[in-house]
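2024-03-11 09:14:02 INFO worker-7 job=invfold-0412 stage=load source=structure_tokens
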């Protein structure tokens, strides 16, 4: 669901304060993209954006579903599950 190696790499690259900003911005942007996706007939660009963003922050399950062309409801469920896991596990994973 989450590539914790990628999360740690990004955290090391940008530092703690910027990582929090990146993660917050990612979550806001993905929610906006999912809202837009529901209204689109051709979702290719939005799926490409979501996939790239998800891979950047280690959300591999979401990226995989984007690559497979999943519908907005499936992507939203996957994102919410991944985001909950991310928030719950992040402090422990970064401390390791």
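2024-03-11 09:14:09 INFO worker-7 stage=emit residues=96
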């Amino acid at each position: 669901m989450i590539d914790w190696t990628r999360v740690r790499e990004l955290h090391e690259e940008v530092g703690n304060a910027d990582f929090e900003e990146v993660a917050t911005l990612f979550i806001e942007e993905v929610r906006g993209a999912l809202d837009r996706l529901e209204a689109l007939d051709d979702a290719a660009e939005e799926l490409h954006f979501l996939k790239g963003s998800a891979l950047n922050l280690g959300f591999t399950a979401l990226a995989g579903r984007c690559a497979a062309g999943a519908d907005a409801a499936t992507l939203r469920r996957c994102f919410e599950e991944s985001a909950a896991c991310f928030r719950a596990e992040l402090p422990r994973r970064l401390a390791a």
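2024-03-11 09:14:09 INFO worker-7 stage=report msg="The radius of gyration is 13 Å."
2024-03-11 09:14:10 INFO worker-7 job finished
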